[in-house]
Amino acid sequence: MVCCLNPDCPNPINPDGQKHCSACATILTPLLRGRYRVIHPLGQGGFGRTYLAEDEDNLKQRCVVKQLTPNVRGTWAMNKAVELFKQEAEQLQKLGGENLQIPSLYAYFEQDGYLYLVQQYIDGQNLLKLWQQQGVLRENEVRQLLLDLLPVLKFIHSRGVVHRDIKPENIMRRRDNDQPVLIDFGVSKQLSQTVMAKPGTNIGSQGYAPIEQMQDGEAYPASDLFSLGASCFHLFTGVHPYRLWTEHGYSWTANWRQHLRGSVSDDLGRVLDKLLPKDRQYRYHSAEDVLRDLQQKSAPVTPQLKPPQSVPITPKGWTRRGLLNFAGFAGLGFLAINLAGMNLARKHLKSSRIDFHLKLSL
């Protein structure tokens, strides 16, 4: 099968050997850059289409091909889209090779008027689809998700990068080991003192992105942590933050507990309380701080063992009551023997006195 790469094609799948797409008449490209065979589309967003492909030069290893076809108007917007696309390739090149929970970059090139990015394929599903199929996460699953993803945020922040679009759709769970992988660095940004977007530009996803990102175009590590907290809230309660955001603005974050289906432990509740404040100054400022709180409260409690106590050995066949009775009888017998001995001694002393008196009389 050959996949048509026209982003507007309504039916892009064609049989092998065909030169033109049967749906849109576009000339078909069997191999991108002479090595990547596109199999079928995976999805489509505001910046273009994503395809599943095979690398013919690498034993048909599966990979993901992203095609930049931004749905934007104006020169500035188009230039910005190209800048962000190239920036994603640079971030994957820098980060993916160092961390297994970030996809690696394979190629970045232009062909037939389109920009392409080829990256590692993650065999699994994103957390939004898993939630739709399996329902809300249990508390221990939310806790484990945080413990698994926070080291990734710690890593990218230490490399001076903020993701700016953390949400369940951008967290893949590997099929083989359940390890979460952070994807879609398309709007990530190099961190200086403050990451600023052009005034009036909203970067991120509504409901998941914090107020400083949506209103002021600013982003910090604390902004990514808010997005992670909002994602956990969504997966834990089943309530989409976007709905709450449209109804209540950011005030919902102060009352997130009222949407719980059950109870939440005090320690996880306090962590979410500090991930979700509207004002950045009241949030966690580093992934390391969140990890420290979670790990301290998740550590198993070592039981305090009492020192061993000496236990009296009871002869086989004897009960405690029998021993007490025996001790009582033995005590009485000992007392009787003592009394008999005392009487005998008194008699002997008396007879000695009489005999002594008789001898004196003689």
Secondary-structure blueprint of this entry?
Blueprint: E1 2-3, E2 13-14, E3 36-45, E4 48-55, E5 61-68, H1 75-95, E6 105-111, E7 114-120, E8 124-126, H2 127-134, H3 139-158, E9 161-162, E10 171-174, E11 180-182, E12 189-190, E13 195-196, H4 211-216, E14 218-219, H5 221-237, H6 241-248, H7 266-275, H8 287-298, H9 320-361
Helix pairs in contact: 3-5, 3-8, 7-8
Structural notes for this entry:
The chain has 362 residues and is an alpha+beta fold. The chain has a five-stranded antiparallel sheet, covered by helices on one side. The chain has two domains: 119 residues, Phosphorylase Kinase, domain 1 (2-Layer Sandwich), CATH 3.30.200; 175 residues, Transferase(Phosphotransferase), domain 1, CATH 1.10.510.10. The chain is 40% helix and 17% strand. A hairpin with a 5-residue loop joins strand 4 and strand 5. This is non-specific serine/threonine protein kinase. It comes from Microseira wollei NIES-4236.
